[in-house]
Design goal:
The strands form two sheets. A two-stranded antiparallel ribbon has the order 1-2. It has a two-stranded parallel sheet with strand order 3-4. Helix content is 53%, strand content 8%. The chain starts with 5 loop residues before the first helix and ends in a 6-residue tail after the last helix. With 264 residues, the chain is mainly α. Helix 2 (44-68) crosses helix 7 (166-175). It is globular, with a radius of gyration of 19 Å. The chain has helices spanning 6-25, 44-68, 70-84, 117-120, 123-132, 154-160, 166-175, 189-195, 198-204, 214-219, 229-240, 243-258, and strands at 89-95, 101-107, 180-182, 210-212.
Length: 264
């Protein structure tokens, strides 16, 4: 996916502020092409204040959580390395704010060479992956030995408890600052092209992608691309984002993680 020009970035910033004004006031005029919203009664300074507060929260939250979890993070690294003596981290290219390609860090929950889909998956599994970008019973997971292990092996447990996402807190949010705590999940380039219209792509890349978000917290395992539900939920956050919604999503994420539903 091509990076946005300076003019496109400026339009994205205006769209972001317009959407925020709409979410705060609940009022909007007719939307022009591009999905921009015009709202009344609020200033752009208030929107920028929310954005600045969100950035401050991202840094402080990610720094504190990283310090608290430093020992569990080291333990997980050692366990992964002991499985196959490979790199404990997995870095994947995704699309971030303004269409910029970012490197998303995760703990590796799959065997080495898992990106070679044709070699690792059957034709049926490959078709399933290309449709939803995930598998119900993924044979590439660490510890997978037989059909059905995709829900109980070590790699599956890492994902179900969202532990594989922990490196994003320190690296992507705290240090690189190319992700936020709350936002739409960072997408693969072909995923973005396939399931979102041009106007929706501009909208979803107008803000930083998040560690967790509305879709992640409330319907990760129930909403699919095929039915169009995931797209609607990701865009719903952008059109309705506010400090109150952010706190609701964060609280629901904690609940989902405790219940081991995998909310990140």
């Amino acid at each position: 996916m091509e990076l946005l020009t300076d003019q496109a970035k400026k339009e994205n910033r205006i769209m972001y502020e317009d959407v925020m004004l709409h979410s705060v006031t609940g009022k909007a005029a007719d939307c022009p092409a591009g999905g921009s919203y015009r709202a009344y009664g609020q200033t752009r300074q208030a929107v920028r204040g929310y954005h600045a507060a969100k950035q401050c929260f991202d840094f402080l939250f990610s720094l504190c959580v990283s310090i608290i979890l430093i020992i569990p993070i080291l333990v997980i690294m050692l366990i992964i390395m002991s499985k196959d003596f490979g790199n404990p981290f997995y870095i994947q290219k995704r699309i971030g704010k303004d269409g910029k390609e970012i490197s998303v860090w995760k703990f590796r929950s799959m065997v080495k060479g898992a990106d070679n889909l044709e070699a690792m998956l059957t034709d049926e599994q490959l078709a399933e992956y290309k449709k939803e970008y995930k598998l119900k019973d993924d044979p590439r997971l660490l510890g997978y030995k037989k059909p059905g292990d995709g829900s109980k092996c070590f790699g599956a447990k890492l994902r179900r408890m969202s532990l594989d996402e922990l490196p994003q807190i320190l690296i992507n949010i705290c240090l690189k600052r190319d992700m936020s705590v709350i936002g739409p999940r960072p997408l693969l380039a072909d995923e973005l092209e396939k399931y979102y219209s041009e106007d929706e792509r501009k909208q979803i890349t107008s803000i930083k992608p998040g560690l967790t978000g509305y879709w992640q917290a409330y319907a990760r395992n129930d909403s699919t691309y095929g039915r169009g539900e995931r797209q609607k939920m990701e865009l719903h956050y952008i059109e309705n984002m506010s400090p109150v919604l952010d706190m609701k999503i964060l609280a629901q994420t904690v609940v989902s993680v405790v219940k081991k539903n995998g909310a990140m």
